[in-house]
Amino acid sequence: MSTDTEPGRPVTRIQREKHELILEAALDVFSRYGFRGSTIDQIAEAAGMSKPNLLYYFKSKEDIHAPILARILETWLEPLREMNADGDPLPEIQSYIRRKLEMSRDFPRESRLFANEMLRGAPGFHEVLNTELKELVDEKAAVIKGWMNQGKIARCDPYHLIFSIWATTQHYADFDIQVRAVLGKARGGEGRFEDAARFLDQLFLHGLKPKK
């Protein structure tokens, strides 16, 4: 948190609450307009405070953006971290797909903000994409290869498997308006996520079953 308080001085409860209020408002603004299209004035209005008051807690739009991105990346990586090399492969992959789909349902703003970052070249994520994210995907790709070598799942490119799971699950957040419009009122409610889960189970798990 960036404030004018003295270095080493404890952050008060009110300061923490204001900090969280600003980040929540900024998430809404950034997810709607992207980083370039968002302004401090918009964030201050969404937070219900004056611009000078907001700038007491954060010195710039970049200072607000950075902690939001850090939280999103941590949230996004957690389901992949939980993929257990010692588990049964198909249930492990199914669980990962379900968790990613649940995130699209529960965190649509975060998903759209993440997508916007990728589209603008990921300046706020570039270093971590090449280190933490790559290392984690390399680790889980090795796990998937191990399952293939043991004959537990069909052979495929593990990286493109992971990419495909990302693409199909995050679609339901990033293109939610399109999904609901095409499905219509009868099928465009909350049940669309369970319908999607059943289809993705069929798509991925059937394709990954080892050949007899």
Describe this structure in words.
With 212 residues, this protein is mainly α. It has two domains: 13-59, Orthogonal Bundle (Arc Repressor Mutant, subunit A), CATH 1.10.10.60; 67-208, Tetracycline Repressor, domain 2 (Orthogonal Bundle). 76% of the residues lie in helices and 0% in strands. The protein has ten helices and no strands. It has helices spanning 13-37, 40-47, 51-57, 61-81, 89-106, 108-119, 126-149, 158-174, 176-187, 191-208. Helix 1 packs across helix 2 (40-47), helix 1 (13-37) packs across helix 4 and helix 6 (108-119) crosses helix 8. The longest helix has 25 residues, at 13-37. The radius of gyration is 20 Å and the shape is globular. The model is unreliable at 1-7 (pLDDT under 50).
Please specify the SSE layout and strand pairing.
Blueprint: H1 13-37, H2 40-47, H3 51-57, H4 61-81, H5 89-106, H6 108-119, H7 126-149, H8 158-174, H9 176-187, H10 191-208
Helix pairs in contact: 1-2, 1-4, 1-6, 2-3, 5-8, 5-10, 6-8, 8-10
CATH architecture of the largest domain: Orthogonal Bundle
CATH class annotation of the largest domain: Mainly Alpha
Unreliable stretches = 1-7
According to CATH, the homologous superfamily of the largest domain is: Tetracycline Repressor, domain 2
Biggest β-sheet description: none
